[in-house]
Task: inverse folding
């Protein structure tokens, strides 16, 4: 890339100089490249070195476009990175910052801000956005008169508080005096195309003011003339998944268990996919063919009818099996299907958001069509549906141990409704329909917010009831392979010891070898009074606090709505009991842990 650009510009450098420059650039990270670019531009403007000292980059005082992102699974970070790339390609100065690493007091120095943020749970901000989200409501938040801002939100419209965090940020910035310079976008799970359009529009809105400021500060708008290779990323992504072999699907709960949990092993042989303990695996699945055929019958559509999905043409049956969401309900489908069919009952729901939520909660899309059959054109049905989204599972293995494999711990979602058994989209496919040896499309999703300590001597406490055990199995494999000396304490819970002790033999083996320092288990239904992981934490209150005071990292994985909140409250109580702090001080203690990356959650 460098050679072609320099040659195209009739470069005065010799071939040898170009090669030396390429070698130097390859050693620099993007921030260092940007600094060097400004440094060289300033020297060019100054025309010479003075007394052997380089002139200071003249554009240094020009305010950058600050991109603040808050991401739970990595999607918002991906959009923010694309925004940064597009801005730099226009020659704009950009600062990309994770909200968790951003000092809120720096807001008073900003002039141009974009916010890229996801929403999860019941309208809650992602972990790394929590502090800034809260700070903006306090008296400490500065006035932001004259600041220009644009906000883009990522969410899932099947949840009630769709993109609520993005709405919160825009409202709070506006209340502090900032001006929204480009309309906020609230993007659903199939967001790629809309995100690209928003990025173009937002940069069009920011660019004139940004360039005027840069020029007014005496700087020169410089597009990066070269770029070092980024760390090697897999060619297989959400948009281009790898067709991997499904090697093992093994039930690991007992015959009489109320849960059906599967240990899944997938071969990554032939791919360049790598992952780190704490990452997730995205898995694409196939919808149930029998239910797809029922949908086609109910809508009187010929299975061989050709439909278009973007630039692709295929049969409607193949599209419904491979490409479209038919399990997870969301308001957008009901609205489109109501309009397409003219169904009066569904059209009433469209006018009443509360009634809509109540209606879709127990129903899959299959149910809505089954209960409201109507003759449709094939393309009309396809246009009512959104693209099938991969399901993300916490990875339950370390490549240091399993090499070209990846392991998952998958709980089958199953329930009875309207007189028939219902299964989750991906869990039903993996547990019931997929056969060992078949191909399944996958990609790795990095999660920098859930990582082992860099120092192998650091102690860790892991709380992972149910399938929340998955990433901690990966953590233990990794620490075993590293021969890490740090202490490891696991809290695990499930209904019954005899039926639901996931990975029992492995855990007992790690305890025997000394890798696991302590294991506390909570089998809630094995005694008259229910016992949960938070109860076990409280029972070990003094020792848990001693570990935290000694620098331990604390991790939670599993249910976000109840378990994670109950564990958090148990931690607050433990801190108060052992330190004399009040509620507010205990919460601040945990915020400080989070800021130091010592309190991390992978919750869903």
Result:
């Amino acid at each position: 890339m460098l050679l072609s650009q320099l040659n195209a510009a009739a470069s005065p450098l010799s071939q040898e100089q170009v090669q030396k420059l390429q070698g130097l650039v390859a050693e620099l990270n993007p921030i260092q490249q940007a600094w060097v670019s400004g440094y060289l531009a300033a020297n060019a403007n100054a025309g010479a070195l003075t007394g052997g000292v380089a002139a200071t980059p003249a554009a240094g005082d020009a305010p950058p476009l600050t991109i603040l992102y808050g991401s739970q699974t990595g999607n918002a970070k991906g959009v923010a990175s694309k925004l940064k790339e597009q801005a730099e390609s226009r020659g704009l100065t950009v600062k990309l910052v994770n909200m968790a690493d951003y000092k809120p007091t720096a807001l008073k120095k900003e002039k141009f801000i974009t916010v890229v943020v996801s929403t999860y749970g019941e309208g809650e901000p992602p972990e790394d956005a929590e502090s800034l989200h809260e700070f903006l409501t306090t008296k400490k938040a500065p006035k932001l008169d004259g600041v220009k801002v644009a906000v883009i939100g990522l969410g899932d419209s099947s949840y009630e508080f769709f993109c609520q965090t993005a709405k919160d940020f825009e409202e709070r910035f506006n209340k502090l005096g900032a001006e929204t310079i480009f309309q906020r976008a609230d993007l659903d799970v199939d967001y790629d195309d809309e995100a690209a359009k928003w990025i173009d529009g937002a940069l069009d809105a920011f660019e004139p003011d940004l360039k005027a400021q840069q020029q007014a500060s005496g700087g020169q708008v410089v597009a990066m003339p070269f770029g070092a290779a980024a760390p090697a990323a897999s060619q297989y992504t959400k948009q281009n998944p790898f067709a991997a072999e499904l090697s093992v699907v093994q039930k690991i709960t007992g015959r009489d268990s109320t849960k059906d949990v599967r240990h899944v092993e997938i071969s990554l042989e032939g791919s360049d996919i790598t992952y780190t303990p704490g990452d997730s695996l995205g898995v694409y699945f196939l919808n149930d063919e029998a239910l797809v055929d029922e949908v086609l019958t109910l809508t009187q559509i010929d299975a061989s009818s050709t439909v278009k999905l973007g630039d692709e043409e295929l049969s409607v049956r193949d599209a419904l099996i491979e490409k479209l969401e038919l399990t997870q309900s969301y308001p957008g489908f009901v609205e489109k299907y109501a309009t397409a069919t003219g169904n009066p009952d569904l059209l009433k729901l469209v006018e009443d958001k509360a009634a809509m939520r109540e209606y879709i909660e127990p129903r899959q899309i299959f149910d809505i069509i089954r209960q409201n059959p109507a003759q449709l054109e094939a393309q009309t049905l396809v246009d009512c549906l959104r693209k099938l989204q991969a399901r993300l599972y916490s990875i339950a293995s370390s490549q240091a141990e399993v090499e070209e494999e990846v392991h998952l711990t998958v709980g089958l979602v199953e329930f009875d409704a309207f007189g028939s058994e219902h299964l989750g989209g991906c869990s039903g496919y993996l547990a019931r329909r997929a056969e060992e040896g078949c191909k399944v499309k996958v990609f790795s999703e990095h999660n920098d917010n859930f990582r082992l300590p860099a120092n192998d001597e650091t102690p860790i406490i892991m709380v992972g009831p149910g399938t929340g055990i998955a990433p901690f199995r990966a953590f233990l494999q990794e620490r075993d392979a590293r021969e890490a000396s740090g202490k490891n304490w696991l809290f695990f819970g499930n209904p019954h010891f005899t039926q639901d002790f996931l990975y029992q033999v492995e855990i007992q083996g790690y305890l025997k070898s000394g890798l696991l320092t302590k294991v506390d288990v909570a089998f809630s239904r094995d005694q008259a009074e229910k016992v949960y992981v938070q109860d076990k934490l409280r029972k070990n209150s003094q020792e848990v606090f001693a570990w935290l005071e000694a620098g331990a990292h604390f991790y939670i994985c599993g249910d976000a709505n109840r378990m994670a909140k109950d564990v958090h409250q148990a931690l607050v109580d433990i801190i108060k009991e052992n330190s004399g702090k009040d509620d507010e001080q205990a919460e601040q203690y945990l915020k400080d842990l989070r800021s130091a990356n010592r309190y991390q959650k992978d919750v869903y």
Remarks:
- Residues 242-285+390-445 form a domain with the Elongation Factor Tu (Ef-tu); domain 3 fold (CATH 2.40.30.10).
- The mean pLDDT is 89.
- The chain has 23 helices and 20 strands.
